[in-house]
Amino acid sequence: MTTDEIPITKKPSRFVLYWRSFGGGSLTLSLLIHGGVLLLAGFVVMVTQLPEQQVDFLPGGGTQAGAQASSDLAHKVQQKKRKAISKTMPMKKLVSTSLNTEITLPDAPLDALDVPDVSSLIGGGSISGGFGKAGSGGGFGTGSGLGGMAGITFKPLMMFGIELKDTRKIAVVMDVSRSMTKYLPLVAKELDKVARGSPLVLYFGCGLKSPPKNLEDKVRKVGDERFNKFWQYWEGKGDMKALRTDYAKLKYDASAPMPLDAIYQQMMKRPNTHFIDFNGIQYTSPALMCKEVMEADTIYWFADFQDAVDADEIAEVVKTLKNRKQKLYIHASTRGRSFEQVKNLLVKPLGGEVIEAKTE
After folding, report:
1. What is the radius of gyration, based on Cα positions, of the chain?
2. Where are the domains of the chain?
3. What distances in angstroms separate CA 234 from CA 21, 117, 281, 305, 328, one per listed residue?
4. pLDDT score at 22
5. pLDDT value, residue 124
6. Per-residue pLDDT tens over the stretch 252-288
7. Given this model, what pLDDT does residue 242 score?
8. Which 3-state string (H, E, C) describes the chain?
9. How high is the pLDDT of residue 167?
10. pLDDT at residue 33 in the model
């Protein structure tokens, strides 16, 4: 072999020579082997310690044993949920020294709440193929609803089948002159049917004349002792002219029978019923404008409209009721001589109407 044919070998670097002298090759091989063993061991440990998934399985099939097992497992599930709540939401005492402090409580996790099974709400059928029937329940609460009570109603208010527009509270002024008293039980019954306990004011007559000074026009409850005298004489059969002259001197006779006793007893038992003692037949305006009816949206006046009226006094009534934002409805047992004046000068300016309904 010639000199030109001898292969030239590159001399290893100083670091490689040092690494070989130190035994680096064997060390590297040993590290790789041990690293592989550690990785394999770690993988085996991780797999063996993975938590086994818990499955709440309710056996089906409709057998007695299956039903008992389902019941036991359901009880265990509920216990686990309660334990989860007690762990995740410990009981704490909250104290606030301010009346206006807002306290926000933490929300319970939805899966920890004891919520009824949806299947029981839609039919109760089981997963094993059975079908159940949905249960039903009912009850009564203390909520409020539509209807007439305590002088106020929340549905359209009607008297004798006629709707009183925009009316939630009503008061009635009733002519109880001798020809009209026979209608009183029916009107009172209708009033209590639609708005029980609403104000009812009784006046003997239906005139609208300007009252003189010092007129006795106080509104009293029917329980007042003067009501007995008023009813005994003015609902009886005594001579009207003689009564006008002697009424102030007369006294109630408890031993005498009470005229129209059934109606008298009805009025005595009815709450929120008032009267004005006899002062003539022409001064109904104090009854229409009294404080006992001022809370009503609508005043309902039942009369025969036979007695005289005055335009100036009507204007005073219109002014007062307009200030109170009250309407006036009139119901005539018969269209007396003053009916048209009352309708045109009083009812229409107040936005009321004439009730056309039979009261037989």
Report:
1. 48
2. 148-355
3. 143, 74, 11, 19, 27
4. 65
5. 44
6. 999 999 999 999 999 999 999 999 999 999 999 999 9
7. 94
8. CCHHHCCCCCCCCHHHHHHHHHCHHHHHHHHHHHHHHHHHHHHHHHHHCCCCCCCCCCCCCCCHHHHHHHHHHHHHHHHHHHHHHHHHCCCCCCCCCCCCCCCCCCCCCHHHCCCCCHHHHCCCCCCCCCCCCCCCCCCCCCCCCCCEECCEECCCCEECCEECCCCCEEEEEEECCCCCHHHHHHHHHHHHHHHCCCCEEEECCCCECCCCCCCCCCEEECCCHHHHHHHHHHCCCCCHHHHHHHHHHCCCCCCCCCCCHHHHHHHHHCCCEEEECCCCCCECHHHHCCHHHCCCCEEEEEECCCCCECHHHHHHHHHHHHHCCCEEEEEECCCCCCHHHHHHHHHHHHCCCEECCCCC
9. 92
10. 85
- The answer to whether residues 296 and 169 touch, using CB atoms and an 8 Å cutoff, is yes
Q: How confident is the model at residue 317, as a pLDDT?
A: 98
The structure tokens listed for 69 are 């097992």
Q: How open is the CA angle 175-277-209, to the nearest 5 degrees?
A: 60
What is the rounded distance in angstroms from the CA atom of residue 176 to the CA atom of residue 156? 28
Which tokens go with 205?
Answer: 């007559």
Q: Give CA–CA dist 189/177, Å, rounded.
A: 19
- What's phi and psi for 108, nearest 5 deg? -75, 140
Class for the domain spanning 148-355:
alpha beta
Which residue ranges of the chain lie beneath pLDDT 50?
3, 56-61, 88, 99, 110-151, 153
| CA nearest neighbour of 160 among 197, 193, 198, 199 | 193
